[in-house]
Design goal:
The chain has helices spanning about 5-15, 25-45, 50-70, 75-85. The chain is an all-alpha fold.
């Protein structure tokens, strides 16, 4: 689980305007951090199938948000991909 300070920092780093807390960029960044944390847990505890299922749901949600952002604004999509280092 993300701590409040970490979550606030991620939101501050990815917001599009000063009061933004729910844009696609912010949501994708938060999901990416949760995915990174869960990936470490799942690699340590291989038999924890519930966490693995949750991880797959988060990956799918991030995938849908990235597809939406790519469809709506390609420039914002490219900028976010580079910033979060999601694809090579």
């Amino acid at each position: 689980m993300l701590m409040k300070e970490a979550k606030t920092k991620i939101i501050d780093d990815n917001r599009t305007h000063p009061t933004d807390s729910g844009s696609a960029e912010v949501q994708i960044a938060l999901l990416s951090e949760r995915i990174r944390l869960l990936t470490g847990h799942v690699t340590s505890f291989k038999k924890d199938h519930t966490s693995k299922t949750g991880l797959m749901k988060l990956v799918g949600q991030r995938k849908r948000l990235l597809a939406y952002l790519k469809r709506e604004d390609k420039a914002r999509y490219e900028k976010l991909i580079k910033k979060l280092k999601l694809r090579k």
